[in-house]
Write a structure and sequence with these properties.
- The protein has about 160 residues and is an alpha+beta fold.
- The protein has a domain of about 70 residues: Alpha-Beta Plaits (2-Layer Sandwich).
- Helix content is about 20%, strand content about 20%.
- The protein contains six helices and eight strands, in the order βααββαβααββαββ.
- A two-stranded antiparallel ribbon has the order 1-8. A two-stranded antiparallel ribbon has the order 2-3.
- A hairpin with a 3-residue loop joins strand 5 and strand 6.
- The longest helix is centred in the first third of the chain and has 7 residues.
- The protein is elongated and about 50 Å long.
- The N and C termini lie close together (about 5 Å).
- The structure holds iron/sulfur cluster (3 copies).
- The site of one iron/sulfur cluster (SF4) has 14 residues, from helix 3.
Length: about 160
């Protein structure tokens, strides 16, 4: 059996608890103004119909509307600074700025936790910190695909 990694929406409880609580109602996806939540499909009845996010298609912007509306509290209504959906990893060998081609600040400028989750070393070079929420915005906007968001959970 293979394990699949994916991001859950922000505030998602630990996976077992999340699955026990999630009603598969889709309200989180309906309320998301950025259309980034889609419902898992497939034959596993415990996972099919639960929400997930693929940052390459559409990242989360940490507006927190989904966790506010979740009727079962499978998504906890936590402050965005406490969200840990995953962690962005930046490959310096692919980054325009680290390679000295151009000064690109796309990931830094668009990060919802700008200056906290991404900082600029020496005022120029982007670096991810431990405050990263894993929202995937930086991965989505990077023109070099230099960033990958690693989810905090594995789902079988
Ligand atoms: S926090 Fe906002 S942008 Fe992110 S998944 Fe929830 S509703 Fe969508
Ligand atoms: S560093 Fe990237 S993944 Fe982390 S919070 Fe900022 S935009 Fe989101
Ligand atoms: S968006 Fe990509 S290329 Fe631009 S600074 Fe960030 S990691 Fe580098």
């Amino acid at each position: 059996m293979s394990s699949k990694r994916f991001l859950r929406p922000p505030g998602a409880r630990p996976e077992r608890e999340f699955l026990a609580r999630c009603l598969q109602c889709g309200q989180c996806a309906q309320v998301c103004p950025f259309y980034c939540i889609y419902m898992h499909t497939g034959f596993n009845p415990f996972i099919s119909g639960t929400p997930q996010i693929d940052p390459r298609k559409a990242p989360c912007h940490l507006c927190m509307h989904c966790s506010e509306i979740c009727p079962s509290n499978a998504l906890e209504n936590v402050p965005k600074e406490k969200v840990r959906m995953g962690r962005a990893e930046l490959d310096r060998t692919k980054c325009h700025t680290w390679q000295g081609f151009i000064i690109c600040r796309s990931c830094f400028e668009r990060c919802p936790l700008k200056g906290r989750a991404i900082v600029l070393e020496k005022g120029i070079y982007p670096a991810i910190t431990e405050k990263c929420a894993g929202c995937g915005v930086c991965e989505h906007v990077c023109p070099k695909k230099a960033i990958v968001t690693i989810p905090t959970r594995f789902v079988t």
